[in-house]
């Protein structure tokens, strides 16, 4: 049960980090629409920096429970979250190459997990 708990914490932390890309894309959209004068640009930039700050602290606490190779292999799950956000939030489409890449990442994480 303790092992499951530490992996849940690791993946929640990775999920938290994936929000950085959302804030970054929203800031980019705001910049393209209103330039440097849009107040939402600064809101999204602030949220992006705040999210990175919280993630950095949480990441340091979480990786104490893992071998670094395991923690960093699991961190690649970020790519999966990024693709999900692109589809569900920004209504982008997934290509076959994206899906194959996600599968390769997922298989890689499973291989590393197997040897822990």
From TrEMBL:
<feature type="transmembrane region" description="Helical">
    <location>
        <begin position="7"/>
        <end position="27"/>
    </location>
</feature>
<dbReference type="InterPro" id="IPR037185">
    <property type="entry name" value="EmrE-like"/>
</dbReference>
<keyword id="KW-0472">Membrane</keyword>
<dbReference type="GO" id="GO:0016020">
    <property type="term" value="C:membrane"/>
</dbReference>
<feature type="transmembrane region" description="Helical">
    <location>
        <begin position="96"/>
        <end position="112"/>
    </location>
</feature>
<feature type="transmembrane region" description="Helical">
    <location>
        <begin position="39"/>
        <end position="59"/>
    </location>
</feature>
<protein>
    <submittedName>
        <fullName>EamA-like transporter family protein</fullName>
    </submittedName>
</protein>
<dbReference type="InterPro" id="IPR000620">
    <property type="entry name" value="EamA_dom"/>
</dbReference>
<feature type="domain" description="EamA">
    <location>
        <begin position="19"/>
        <end position="112"/>
    </location>
</feature>
<comment type="similarity">
    <text>Belongs to the EamA transporter family.</text>
</comment>
<keyword id="KW-1133">Transmembrane helix</keyword>
<dbReference type="Pfam" id="PF00892">
    <property type="entry name" value="EamA"/>
</dbReference>
<keyword id="KW-0812">Transmembrane</keyword>
<feature type="transmembrane region" description="Helical">
    <location>
        <begin position="71"/>
        <end position="90"/>
    </location>
</feature>
